[in-house]
Amino acid sequence: MWDVLKEYPAARIRLEAIAVKRLEKYKRAPLEKGITCNSMTQLVGEGATPLLGTNEALLAEIKRLRERLVCLESENAAMSAKLNQQQWEVENRLAEIEMQICGASSSSSLEDNNERNRESII
Q1: In this structure, how many other beta carbons lie within 10 angstroms of the beta carbon of residue 58?
Q2: Residue 42 contacts residue 55 (beta carbons within 8 Å)
Q3: Coiled-coil region(s) at which residues (predicted)?
């Protein structure tokens, strides 16, 4: 995917902009990292007898992370499909432009040949 992004800097810039927006969105949203850190220190402090609430907090964190992973995977699939569509559109547009250029250059060479033929007649 990085090779595609290197070839199409506009797509790379757009993806970076989306990533920055999402990062800012998640920075504003309250994160549950504090709960995880506190529960880990409680586990260490208690030794072999972890608190029941700690296990529940860890299970809740695991559940949240799994849901986040599913969300990210679906976003990744959608972005990949969108990128493939845009790549296809760009390749088709490039092919159209190349055909126009080839058509224009061949028609200009025909005009040059016609001028030479006219000069040779004179």
Answers
A1: 16
A2: no
A3: 55-82
- Residue 106: C-alpha distances to residues 73, 101, 103, 109, 115 (Å): 49, 8, 5, 5, 14
Extract the tokens encoding 6: 């290197």
Is the pLDDT assigned to residue 75 strictly greater than 80?
yes
Q: Residue for token digits 């040059």?
A: 112
DSSP class per residue in 22-69? HHHHHHHSPPSHHHHHHHHHHHHHHTT---HHHHHHHHHHHHHHHHHH
Is residue 43 over pLDDT 90?
Answer: no
Contact 12, 95 (CB under 8 A): no
Q: Binning pLDDT at 50, 70 and 90, where does residue 37 land? A: very low
* pTM of structure: 0.40
